[in-house]
Specification:
Elements: H1 5-11, E1 18-21, H2 29-36, E2 45-48, H3 60-69, E3 74-85, E4 88-96
Parallel strand pairs: 1-2, 2-3
Antiparallel strand pairs: 3-4
Length: 97
Amino acid sequence: MINNNFEKKLKSKEFVFTAETSPPDSTVRSEITDRVLCLKDLADAINVTDGASAKSHLSSLVVSSIIKDIEIEPILQLSLIHISEPTRRRGISFAVM
């Protein structure tokens, strides 16, 4: 279970430090854990980006789950595309903590 220090620090208006990672192309769990374990005692949370380079990669939801399993708080970023007219697109991005 995650301690949720990130939320506690935000609520008490303390300084927080976050890092960012993007999902790998492969589904090998160790590629994810090797990337973020060095941040475990340094960052209060890790932002997992979505839609990197518009190419196929592992879901940011899956990566967030793996990061949570190793007791690091993830910030899940999801990107959506809203099409308002046939020729115009707008990107919408939001984060879930």
